[in-house]
Amino acid sequence: MNAIIFDLDGVICFTDHYHFLAWKQIADSIGVYFDEQVNDRLRGVSRMDSLDIILEKSKIEYSLEEKRILAEEKNKRYVQLLNHISTADLSDEVKDVLQELCKRGYKLAIGSSSKNTKYILKQIGLEHYFDAVSDGTMIKKSKPDPEVFLKAAEMLQERPESCLVVEDALAGVEAAWRGGFFSAGMGEAATHKHVTFPIKRLSDLLIIMKE
Protein backbone atom coordinates (compact mmCIF):
# COMPACT_ATOMS: atom_id res chain seq x y z
CA MET A 1 0.00 0.00 0.00
CA ASN A 2 1.22 3.46 -0.93
CA ALA A 3 -1.48 5.70 0.49
CA ILE A 4 -3.88 6.09 3.42
CA ILE A 5 -7.30 7.75 3.08
CA PHE A 6 -8.85 8.90 6.34
CA ASP A 7 -12.46 9.60 7.12
CA LEU A 8 -12.60 12.92 8.98
CA ASP A 9 -15.19 12.86 11.73
CA GLY A 10 -14.57 10.16 14.33
CA VAL A 11 -11.10 9.39 12.98
CA ILE A 12 -9.11 12.62 12.65
CA CYS A 13 -11.38 14.76 14.81
CA PHE A 14 -14.69 14.48 16.63
CA THR A 15 -17.57 16.74 15.58
CA ASP A 16 -20.34 14.18 16.08
CA HIS A 17 -21.75 16.10 19.03
CA TYR A 18 -22.02 19.29 16.96
CA HIS A 19 -23.87 17.41 14.21
CA PHE A 20 -26.19 15.97 16.82
CA LEU A 21 -26.95 19.38 18.35
CA ALA A 22 -27.63 20.98 14.96
CA TRP A 23 -29.89 18.15 13.77
CA LYS A 24 -31.67 18.08 17.14
CA GLN A 25 -32.48 21.77 16.81
CA ILE A 26 -33.91 21.18 13.33
CA ALA A 27 -35.88 18.10 14.39
CA ASP A 28 -37.31 19.91 17.43
CA SER A 29 -38.34 22.87 15.27
CA ILE A 30 -40.52 20.61 13.08
CA GLY A 31 -41.73 18.33 15.87
CA VAL A 32 -39.84 15.19 14.85
CA TYR A 33 -38.35 12.85 17.45
CA PHE A 34 -34.54 12.67 17.30
CA ASP A 35 -32.06 11.01 19.64
CA GLU A 36 -28.52 9.60 19.74
CA GLN A 37 -29.67 6.31 18.22
CA VAL A 38 -31.07 8.04 15.16
CA ASN A 39 -27.95 10.21 15.02
CA ASP A 40 -25.77 7.08 14.82
CA ARG A 41 -27.46 6.21 11.52
CA LEU A 42 -26.27 9.50 10.04
CA ARG A 43 -22.55 8.84 10.40
CA GLY A 44 -20.80 8.99 7.03
CA VAL A 45 -24.07 9.92 5.30
CA SER A 46 -24.62 13.08 3.22
CA ARG A 47 -26.64 15.98 4.57
CA MET A 48 -29.70 15.40 2.38
CA ASP A 49 -29.67 11.65 2.98
CA SER A 50 -29.37 12.33 6.72
CA LEU A 51 -32.41 14.59 6.54
CA ASP A 52 -34.38 11.85 4.79
CA ILE A 53 -33.54 9.46 7.65
CA ILE A 54 -34.72 12.02 10.22
CA LEU A 55 -37.93 12.67 8.30
CA GLU A 56 -38.85 8.98 8.39
CA LYS A 57 -40.54 9.83 11.69
CA SER A 58 -42.34 12.87 10.30
CA LYS A 59 -46.10 12.86 9.72
CA ILE A 60 -45.66 15.61 7.14
CA GLU A 61 -44.47 15.11 3.56
CA TYR A 62 -41.84 17.72 2.67
CA SER A 63 -41.12 18.98 -0.83
CA LEU A 64 -37.60 18.93 -2.24
CA GLU A 65 -37.37 22.70 -1.78
CA GLU A 66 -38.53 22.49 1.83
CA LYS A 67 -35.93 19.79 2.48
CA ARG A 68 -33.24 21.96 0.91
CA ILE A 69 -34.16 24.84 3.25
CA LEU A 70 -34.07 22.55 6.31
CA ALA A 71 -30.68 21.11 5.27
CA GLU A 72 -29.23 24.59 4.74
CA GLU A 73 -30.51 25.71 8.13
CA LYS A 74 -28.93 22.67 9.77
CA ASN A 75 -25.61 23.42 8.11
CA LYS A 76 -25.75 27.06 9.19
CA ARG A 77 -26.26 26.03 12.81
CA TYR A 78 -23.55 23.36 12.53
CA VAL A 79 -20.98 25.80 11.13
CA GLN A 80 -21.75 28.22 13.96
CA LEU A 81 -21.03 25.43 16.44
CA LEU A 82 -17.79 24.58 14.60
CA ASN A 83 -16.42 27.99 15.51
CA HIS A 84 -15.63 26.44 18.89
CA ILE A 85 -13.22 23.91 17.34
CA SER A 86 -9.51 24.77 17.38
CA THR A 87 -6.04 23.22 17.23
CA ALA A 88 -6.60 22.23 20.87
CA ASP A 89 -9.13 19.65 19.61
CA LEU A 90 -6.47 17.78 17.62
CA SER A 91 -5.25 14.93 19.80
CA ASP A 92 -1.56 14.19 20.28
CA GLU A 93 -2.19 10.64 19.05
CA VAL A 94 -3.63 11.80 15.72
CA LYS A 95 -0.82 14.30 15.25
CA ASP A 96 1.89 11.75 16.07
CA VAL A 97 0.40 9.06 13.80
CA LEU A 98 0.09 11.43 10.83
CA GLN A 99 3.64 12.67 11.30
CA GLU A 100 5.04 9.14 11.51
CA LEU A 101 3.14 7.94 8.44
CA CYS A 102 4.41 10.96 6.51
CA LYS A 103 7.91 10.17 7.68
CA ARG A 104 7.50 6.63 6.35
CA GLY A 105 6.64 8.02 2.93
CA TYR A 106 2.93 7.33 2.69
CA LYS A 107 0.62 9.64 0.77
CA LEU A 108 -2.19 10.89 3.01
CA ALA A 109 -5.70 11.95 2.02
CA ILE A 110 -9.09 12.74 3.49
CA GLY A 111 -12.24 11.04 2.18
CA SER A 112 -15.26 12.62 3.85
CA SER A 113 -18.87 13.23 2.84
CA SER A 114 -18.85 16.50 4.78
CA LYS A 115 -19.00 19.72 2.77
CA ASN A 116 -17.28 21.46 5.70
CA THR A 117 -14.17 19.27 5.55
CA LYS A 118 -11.70 21.97 4.50
CA TYR A 119 -13.05 24.42 7.08
CA ILE A 120 -12.69 21.82 9.86
CA LEU A 121 -9.14 20.94 8.76
CA LYS A 122 -8.25 24.62 8.89
CA GLN A 123 -9.77 25.00 12.36
CA ILE A 124 -7.66 22.13 13.74
CA GLY A 125 -4.50 23.19 11.92
CA LEU A 126 -4.31 20.43 9.31
CA GLU A 127 -5.34 22.35 6.18
CA HIS A 128 -1.94 21.79 4.50
CA TYR A 129 -1.21 18.36 5.93
CA PHE A 130 -2.86 16.06 3.38
CA ASP A 131 -1.83 15.39 -0.21
CA ALA A 132 -5.50 15.30 -1.27
CA VAL A 133 -8.88 16.20 0.21
CA SER A 134 -11.96 14.53 -1.28
CA ASP A 135 -15.15 15.82 0.32
CA GLY A 136 -18.87 16.37 -0.06
CA THR A 137 -18.39 19.29 -2.45
CA MET A 138 -16.93 16.93 -5.07
CA ILE A 139 -19.30 13.95 -5.01
CA LYS A 140 -22.87 13.10 -5.96
CA LYS A 141 -23.21 9.92 -3.90
CA SER A 142 -22.42 9.52 -0.22
CA LYS A 143 -21.15 6.43 1.58
CA PRO A 144 -21.70 3.48 1.31
CA ASP A 145 -21.08 4.45 -2.32
CA PRO A 146 -17.27 4.47 -2.82
CA GLU A 147 -17.22 7.70 -4.87
CA VAL A 148 -15.51 9.84 -2.21
CA PHE A 149 -12.69 7.30 -1.80
CA LEU A 150 -12.32 6.72 -5.53
CA LYS A 151 -11.98 10.48 -5.98
CA ALA A 152 -9.30 10.61 -3.28
CA ALA A 153 -7.35 7.77 -4.92
CA GLU A 154 -7.61 9.53 -8.28
CA MET A 155 -6.28 12.75 -6.75
CA LEU A 156 -3.38 10.79 -5.25
CA GLN A 157 -2.79 9.04 -8.60
CA GLU A 158 -3.13 5.67 -6.90
CA ARG A 159 -5.26 2.61 -7.61
CA PRO A 160 -7.76 1.53 -4.91
CA GLU A 161 -5.81 -1.64 -4.18
CA SER A 162 -2.80 0.53 -3.28
CA CYS A 163 -4.77 2.47 -0.64
CA LEU A 164 -5.91 1.82 2.92
CA VAL A 165 -9.14 3.52 4.03
CA VAL A 166 -9.45 4.33 7.75
CA GLU A 167 -13.04 4.51 9.02
CA ASP A 168 -15.16 4.48 12.16
CA ALA A 169 -18.53 3.94 10.44
CA LEU A 170 -20.04 0.80 8.92
CA ALA A 171 -21.08 2.76 5.83
CA GLY A 172 -17.47 3.85 5.37
CA VAL A 173 -16.06 0.32 5.47
CA GLU A 174 -18.81 -0.81 3.11
CA ALA A 175 -17.82 2.00 0.72
CA ALA A 176 -14.16 0.98 0.93
CA TRP A 177 -15.02 -2.65 0.18
CA ARG A 178 -17.25 -1.73 -2.76
CA GLY A 179 -14.47 0.42 -4.19
CA GLY A 180 -11.80 -2.26 -3.95
CA PHE A 181 -9.85 -0.66 -1.08
CA PHE A 182 -8.23 -2.22 1.95
CA SER A 183 -9.75 -0.88 5.16
CA ALA A 184 -8.97 -0.34 8.83
CA GLY A 185 -12.05 -0.04 11.03
CA MET A 186 -12.31 1.54 14.46
CA GLY A 187 -15.23 1.21 16.87
CA GLU A 188 -18.38 0.02 15.12
CA ALA A 189 -16.52 -0.14 11.79
CA ALA A 190 -14.26 -2.86 13.23
CA THR A 191 -17.26 -5.21 13.26
CA HIS A 192 -17.97 -5.00 9.51
CA LYS A 193 -17.65 -8.39 7.85
CA HIS A 194 -15.48 -6.97 5.06
CA VAL A 195 -13.09 -4.88 7.18
CA THR A 196 -9.46 -5.78 6.43
CA PHE A 197 -7.93 -4.67 9.72
CA PRO A 198 -10.08 -4.23 12.86
CA ILE A 199 -8.23 -1.74 15.07
CA LYS A 200 -8.84 -0.31 18.54
CA ARG A 201 -7.05 3.02 18.13
CA LEU A 202 -5.48 5.10 15.38
CA SER A 203 -1.94 4.33 16.55
CA ASP A 204 -2.53 0.68 15.58
CA LEU A 205 -1.95 1.87 12.00
CA LEU A 206 1.74 2.14 12.80
CA ILE A 207 1.78 -1.63 13.35
CA ILE A 208 -0.20 -2.39 10.17
CA MET A 209 1.75 -0.06 7.88
CA LYS A 210 5.38 -1.04 7.43
CA GLU A 211 8.24 1.33 8.01
UniProtKB/TrEMBL annotation:
The entry's keywords: Carbohydrate metabolism, Isomerase, Magnesium, Metal-binding, Phosphoprotein
EC numbers for this chain: 5.4.2.6
One Pfam family hit: Hydrolase
Active site (catalytic residues): D7, D9
InterPro entries associated with the record: B-phosphoglucomutase_hydrolase, Beta-PGM, Beta-PGM-like, HAD-like_sf, HAD-SF_hydro_IA, HAD_sf, PGP-like_dom2
Site (described: Important for catalytic activity and assists the phosphoryl transfer reaction to Asp8 by balancing charge and orienting the reacting groups): S112, K143
Listed GO biological process terms: carbohydrate metabolic process
Highest rank taxon of the organism: Bacteria
Residue sites binding Mg(2+) per the record: D7, D9, E167, D168
GO terms, molecular function: beta-phosphoglucomutase activity; magnesium ion binding
Named cofactor requirement(s): Mg(2+)
UniProt catalytic activity: beta-D-glucose 1-phosphate = beta-D-glucose 6-phosphate
Primary enzyme class: isomerase
Co-factor binding comment: Binds 2 magnesium ions per subunit.
UniProt binding sites for substrate: 7-9, 23, 42-47, 50, 74, 112-116, 143
SUPFAM superfamilies: HAD-like (SSF56784)
Family recorded in the similarity comment: Belongs to the HAD-like hydrolase superfamily. CbbY/CbbZ/Gph/YieH family.
Name of protein: Beta-phosphoglucomutase
